[in-house]
Amino acid sequence: MKLPQQPKIPDSKDTIFWLKFQSQIVNQKKSRENITPEGYEKVTLLLWLWLINLMCVNPKELYGTSYVSKELAKATLVTTSVTTIANWWNAFTTLPFLLFMFESMGIVAFPAAVLANVGLIKLGNALATGAASHQPISLGFARIGTSGFITLNLVLTFVSGVGSELLLNQPGLSRKLGEDLVAESIFQPLENEILVIKEDATKIRQECTTLQRKLERLSPNDPNRDELHLAAYGLYADRINQGGYKSYENDPIEQWPACPKANDLAAASDRQLKVAQDKYQQKLTEVKNYGSYLAYLKKNKPEIYESRFNEAGNISSGTQATRVAAISFAHKLLSRQWVDIGQSLFVMSISAITSTIAIFMAISYSKREDVQMSKSEAVIKAREVFIKETIFDLNKNKISPEDHDLFKVFVEDLKQTGRCEYPPFVEYVKYAREMEKTRYLQEDLETIEKALEQVKNGYHQFKNSSSDLEIVAGRNLIHQGCDSIKAFASRYFHKDYRVKQLIKTVEYVQAYLQYAPLNLPLATRPIGYLEEVLTASISLAERLDQTIHKNYNSIIVNL
To answer: Which position among 202, 218, 291, 473 has the lowest Cβ density within 10 Å, counted as fewest Cβ atoms?
Structure first.
């Protein structure tokens, strides 16, 4: 690979000349740092900084200090602002949920809810910071942070809707609980009674229906027909005598044939069902006449009402209110009754939108090249070289103490913040970053060339040697080289059909060589197989070489 020419470190005089144009800003910064707040102002400042760090995503935690461009600083500010606002909105809309959840704790309910809310904000900020830590060395940590950030936002988005329902729809939740309590204590027993009557009637008819089907399947001359007919209808004479005397009528109804018994019991069941249904309708009308389920409960079931509602008619238990709100909100949301949850749906929609934007911005931010560059070890080393070379040149040129102090302030600020717009410095560290990005390509290419050399050496050794030990050594060289080439080919070419075929060829020959006899005469050795694996390995290596050079050129094209 042809390396681009490394930028040169400029003369220290040029650097000082450029810094003097920036001296006003540097001096202002230096003078601000020398002003030390005293007493109350210092405590207030520390408290304010602590609060900001607690409630907001810290921009400095999202990038490193190797080199920070103006574009990165702006992108970081936008990302942290959006993420912080999303976390604040989720926390604000979740607070009612937490207040109701901790209501049973008495006077500590509000502090506990606020503390939990602050904890959620801090957790969201920490997970957002983790999601932005998309470095090779911390890739697993970043994935955990991203997964946690997404999960937390999904949960808080739903909880924000429930919290809004708790805050804005207390009367509606009371009505819903009143309906549930009336249904449970009044209507459910009546419905159970009706259900039991219907089930009994079904069982009675089922026995008759079963016997009728069996009779239909029998031929007229079947010897079992009389027995089934007797069980189903009784004697033939009873069946023929329509409207007259039946021989079984004097017996208990349990001993009657199945179908007459079913008809008689079904008629009684229908009468019972009619009574139960009329009773249900009467009770329903009675409840409606009170105007609301709550009014009916308060008048007719005071013990139930007083245990669930306070004097204002709201649900007395925070846990109960939370349960009703969650069930009601989820049901209306999934059944598309969106008009009934308009305000809560609006709050949840804002939460969903801000959370989604924050998630995608955090993920997109973590993959920015300037973010990776700000954390690059190669850039840090290049920065240190640039500083040391400049200091050496400054000492050699014997510049004034004022210029030394100016450069010292510049270096301190550069190491603390990573910010510098000095063009030669920017060019120098960008070159270091590009070389770092291409280092793995150079290493891969060297490994592939070494692997191909192993295959070639193994081929000649296996082909020409007469010693078993040398043949085994040659075979091992072939295996080692082929394994390396296959691994790189699989990594660089995921879907290339021709590459997959070449890999299969190499694997087939490797499997053959593994069990091929070693003591064959030179003339009868599997030279064809050896040539095939050599050709396939060379072809794979050439493809890899072309792809790696293409990737390399695409990286350094901007240098």
So the answer is: 291
Strand partners, 450: none
Amino acid 187: pLDDT: 82
**Rounded alpha-carbon distances, angstroms, from residue 46 to 23, 40, 42, 49, 53:** 29, 10, 6, 5, 10
Report the alpha-carbon distance of residue 23 to residue 20 in Å, rounded: 5
Q: In this structure, is residue 5 part of a structural domain?
A: no
Domain limits for position 217: 172-315
3-state secondary structure 344-383: HHHHHHHHHHHHHHHHHHHHHHHCCHHHHHHCCHHHHHHH
CATH number, domain with residue 513 = 1.20.120
- Give percent above pLDDT 70 in the chain: 87
Q: How many domains does the chain have?
A: 3
Which residue has tokens 């509602």? 309
Three-class SS state of 329: helix
Q: How do residues 411-425 score in pLDDT, each as one tens digit?
A: 988 898 898 889 999
Q: Two tokens at 12?
A: 């220290």
Question: In this structure, are 181 and 289 located in the same domain?
Answer: yes
Whether 281 and 158 map to the same domain: the answer is no
**Residue 117 sits in the same domain as residue 212:** no
Q: How is residue 371 written in tokens?
A: 């973010």
Whether 389 is covered by a domain: the verdict is: no
Phi-psi region of 120 (alpha: psi -120 to 50; beta: other; left: phi over 0): alpha
Q: Which of 66-75, 337-346, 398-407, 521-530 has the highest mean pLDDT?
A: 66-75
In a domain, 20, yes or no: no
Overall average pLDDT of the 267-286 stretch: 83
pTM, full prediction: 0.64
- Residues 422, 425, 427, 428, Cα dihedral to 10°: 180
Residue 459 pLDDT greater than 80, yes or no: yes
Closest CA to 483 of 456, 448, 444, 517: 448
Instruction: Please tell me the distance from the alpha carbon of residue 73 to that of residue 522, in angstroms, as a whole number.
Output: 70
Q: Is the distance from CB of 370 to CB of 95 less than 8 angstroms?
A: no
Cα–chain center distance at 197: 50
What is the rounded distance in angstroms from the CA atom of residue 454 to the CA atom of residue 463?
14
End-to-end CA distance of the chain: give it in Å, rounded.
Answer: 15
Q: Say if residue 162 is in the same domain as residue 88.
A: yes
Q: State the Cα–Cα distance between residues 383 and 375, nearest whole angstrom.
A: 12
